[in-house]
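Can't paste images in this forum, so I'm doing it all in text. The chain is below; anyone willing to post the predicted structure tokens underneath?
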Amino acid sequence: MSSEKICLTGCTGGLGSRILHHLLFTLSIAPSRLIISTPNPSSASSLPHANELDVRKGDFLEPATLSSAFAGATRLLLVSYPSIAHGTRVTAHQNAIDAAVRVGIKYILYTSLAFAGDSEAAVMRAHIDTEAYLKKTCARAGVKYTIVREGIYSESYPLYLGFFDAGKMVGEGGGTGNNKRVVKIAEGADRGIAWVDRDALGEGTAKLLVNEKGEFDDRTVLLSGSRGVSLREVAELINGILGWEGEGALRVEEVGMEAYVDFQTEMKTGNKEDRETREFMELWASTFPAIRKGELDVIDPLLEILLGRELKPMKKSLEVLLKDVTSAEGSIGQYAK
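Text version of the structure:
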């Protein structure tokens, strides 16, 4: 295996931390080969092998910090900037791509998202613009790239399921005739989503990052789950895990775009006219037409091939994610009905 240095961004976040874990412990990459670029170097102190990693300050929104952060690496993991603000996110990514080319990076892996390439979902628009900029810049500079459209995290299901909070729904319903276990979404309740747990994505992405055969160079690849599970099916799985049934069962209600924005804004702030929250909800609501169109119901076997095993089913992921709720008093049974 090559001794070239790899620069990693986003390693203190959910996906990036799993990529780092698998580089170190699954693929046995020496810590001395890894450069960690982070806006706040002190945040890297809790990373595994922190004392052996080369931690540098690199802030996507401070371009002057990026050249020194990336210097000496030949491969770059560019984890997408954590913001739904389109302009900020695209600028951050462009700054990183420009810096990578400037310091002589030879290969960039960019973590995009598993919506369609022409999606109108707000959460995908910055990715689409970044993908285009990456392709153009790399072609001009002779830099190789891989765009990884990361599947929808199983762990993120509450965002899609009406900001579902199981803890707040414990004790609701219960056969009173006034079931409060209802989540409201805009549309798309019955269309599949190819959920996949973040750890599997981290492992698959790590393997792509260190692949030196060139088979994924200058390609866009999808890492998805192995089966589409709709939001209504997710609710049914939750009911089975928590023992919610009959009038106490969790239900999914489609209410349309405007009513969804009104409801979620009021739930968050007590005022459906709250400007900042409403603007966010309007952006997030654009996710649901994309779900209805089937953008997230696309299955690709690549991740299972990379891992050499079957992926964790959504039910298993939910059992783990709901464990804190179901173990609050030591048993699942107490939440039945």
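The longest strand covers residues 107-113. The chain has a mean pLDDT of 93.
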